[in-house]
Write a structure and sequence with these properties.
This protein has 1 helix and 10 strands, in the order H-E-E-E-E-E-E-E-E-E-E. By secondary structure, it is mainly β. The chain has one domain. The protein has a 5-stranded antiparallel beta sheet with strand order 6-5-4-7-10, with no helix packed on it. It binds zinc ion (ZN). Zinc ion binds next to loops.
Protein backbone atom coordinates (compact mmCIF):
# COMPACT_ATOMS: atom_id res chain seq x y z
CA UNK A 1 0.00 0.00 0.00
CA UNK A 2 3.03 2.30 0.13
CA UNK A 3 3.91 2.27 -3.55
CA UNK A 4 3.41 5.69 -5.01
CA UNK A 5 3.78 5.58 -8.74
CA UNK A 6 1.62 7.16 -11.39
CA UNK A 7 0.66 10.11 -9.21
CA UNK A 8 1.57 13.76 -9.80
CA UNK A 9 4.96 14.39 -8.23
CA UNK A 10 6.49 17.51 -6.72
CA UNK A 11 8.47 19.69 -9.11
CA UNK A 12 11.43 21.03 -7.11
CA UNK A 13 12.00 24.76 -7.46
CA UNK A 14 15.17 26.74 -6.79
CA UNK A 15 13.88 27.30 -3.25
CA UNK A 16 12.77 23.72 -2.51
CA UNK A 17 15.53 21.84 -4.34
CA UNK A 18 17.73 21.36 -1.20
CA UNK A 19 14.74 19.84 0.62
CA UNK A 20 14.12 17.30 -2.15
CA UNK A 21 17.84 16.53 -2.54
CA UNK A 22 18.01 15.66 1.18
CA UNK A 23 14.77 13.67 0.96
CA UNK A 24 16.31 11.72 -1.90
CA UNK A 25 19.00 10.66 0.60
CA UNK A 26 16.39 9.78 3.24
CA UNK A 27 16.97 12.90 5.34
CA UNK A 28 14.33 15.39 6.46
CA UNK A 29 15.61 18.96 6.43
CA UNK A 30 13.86 22.24 7.11
CA UNK A 31 14.88 25.85 6.78
CA UNK A 32 16.05 27.17 10.14
CA UNK A 33 16.19 30.94 10.53
CA UNK A 34 19.73 32.18 11.23
CA UNK A 35 18.35 35.04 13.35
CA UNK A 36 15.70 33.49 15.58
CA UNK A 37 16.13 29.72 15.09
CA UNK A 38 12.56 29.22 13.90
CA UNK A 39 12.02 26.13 11.69
CA UNK A 40 9.61 26.64 8.83
CA UNK A 41 7.67 24.53 6.37
CA UNK A 42 6.88 24.98 3.49
CA UNK A 43 10.04 26.54 2.02
CA UNK A 44 9.81 30.34 2.23
CA UNK A 45 12.07 33.23 1.24
CA UNK A 46 11.64 34.96 4.60
CA UNK A 47 11.33 33.63 8.14
CA UNK A 48 7.66 33.24 8.96
CA UNK A 49 8.45 34.31 12.55
CA UNK A 50 10.76 37.33 12.24
CA UNK A 51 10.86 38.07 8.46
CA UNK A 52 14.66 37.77 8.26
CA UNK A 53 16.03 36.24 5.06
CA UNK A 54 19.19 34.26 6.01
CA UNK A 55 18.54 30.63 6.84
CA UNK A 56 20.28 27.25 6.95
CA UNK A 57 18.88 23.94 5.78
CA UNK A 58 18.96 21.86 8.95
CA UNK A 59 18.32 18.17 9.46
CA UNK A 60 15.46 17.61 11.89
CA UNK A 61 14.43 14.64 14.01
CA UNK A 62 11.65 13.39 11.75
CA UNK A 63 9.59 12.77 14.90
CA UNK A 64 6.32 14.37 15.80
CA UNK A 65 2.70 13.71 16.54
CA UNK A 66 -0.46 13.33 14.56
CA UNK A 67 -2.13 16.75 14.55
CA UNK A 68 -5.10 15.79 12.36
CA UNK A 69 -6.04 13.21 9.76
CA UNK A 70 -8.70 11.92 7.42
CA UNK A 71 -9.10 8.71 5.48
CA UNK A 72 -9.45 9.20 1.75
CA UNK A 73 -11.73 6.63 0.11
CA UNK A 74 -12.13 8.31 -3.28
CA UNK A 75 -8.99 8.81 -5.35
CA UNK A 76 -8.53 12.45 -6.34
CA UNK A 77 -6.78 11.35 -9.54
CA UNK A 78 -5.95 8.11 -11.30
CA UNK A 79 -2.87 6.53 -9.75
CA UNK A 80 -3.81 7.09 -6.11
CA UNK A 81 -4.21 3.81 -4.31
CA UNK A 82 -7.17 4.03 -1.92
CA UNK A 83 -7.92 4.11 0.90
CA UNK A 84 -5.07 6.19 2.31
CA UNK A 85 -4.58 8.40 5.33
CA UNK A 86 -4.07 12.10 4.64
CA UNK A 87 -2.58 13.68 7.71
CA UNK A 88 -1.17 16.81 9.26
CA UNK A 89 1.85 16.04 11.41
CA UNK A 90 3.27 18.42 14.01
CA UNK A 91 7.04 18.02 14.07
CA UNK A 92 9.00 18.19 17.33
CA UNK A 93 10.63 21.30 15.87
CA UNK A 94 7.21 22.97 15.50
CA UNK A 95 6.13 23.08 11.86
CA UNK A 96 3.02 21.32 10.60
CA UNK A 97 3.46 19.14 7.51
CA UNK A 98 0.67 17.92 5.28
CA UNK A 99 1.57 14.34 4.49
CA UNK A 100 0.45 10.80 4.02
CA UNK A 101 0.58 8.17 6.75
CA UNK A 102 1.81 4.80 5.59
CA UNK A 103 1.33 1.47 7.33
CA UNK A 104 -1.41 3.11 9.40
CA UNK A 105 -4.04 0.71 10.75
CA UNK A 106 -7.21 2.74 11.28
CA UNK A 107 -7.68 1.36 14.82
CA UNK A 108 -4.39 2.99 15.82
CA UNK A 109 -5.19 6.43 14.41
CA UNK A 110 -5.57 9.07 17.09
CA UNK A 111 -4.80 12.74 17.43
CA UNK A 112 -1.46 13.18 19.24
CA UNK A 113 -0.30 9.66 18.30
CA UNK A 114 3.51 9.64 17.89
CA UNK A 115 4.81 9.47 14.32
CA UNK A 116 8.13 9.42 12.51
CA UNK A 117 9.15 10.21 8.98
CA UNK A 118 9.15 7.26 6.57
CA UNK A 119 10.20 8.17 3.07
CA UNK A 120 8.44 6.51 0.15
CA UNK A 121 10.25 6.32 -3.17
CA UNK A 122 8.14 7.69 -6.01
CA UNK A 123 10.73 8.12 -8.76
CA UNK A 124 14.48 8.23 -9.20
CA UNK A 125 14.48 11.92 -8.24
CA UNK A 126 11.60 12.09 -5.76
CA UNK A 127 11.55 10.37 -2.38
CA UNK A 128 8.25 11.52 -0.86
CA UNK A 129 8.16 12.39 2.81
CA UNK A 130 5.54 10.20 4.42
CA UNK A 131 5.09 9.34 8.09
CA UNK A 132 4.21 6.24 10.10
CA UNK A 133 2.88 5.63 13.59
CA UNK A 134 5.42 4.69 16.24
CA UNK A 135 5.09 3.18 19.70
CA UNK A 136 6.83 6.00 21.57
ZN1 LIG B 1 13.38 34.18 12.23
Amino acid sequence: MTAMTGIPLPQPTELSRPFWAAANEGRLVLQRCDACGHHRWTPQILCTNCLVEPFTWTEVSGRGKLYSYTIVYRAPLAGFEIPYVLAVVELEEGPLMLTRLVDAPTERLAVDAPVEVAFTRASEEINLYTFRLTDA
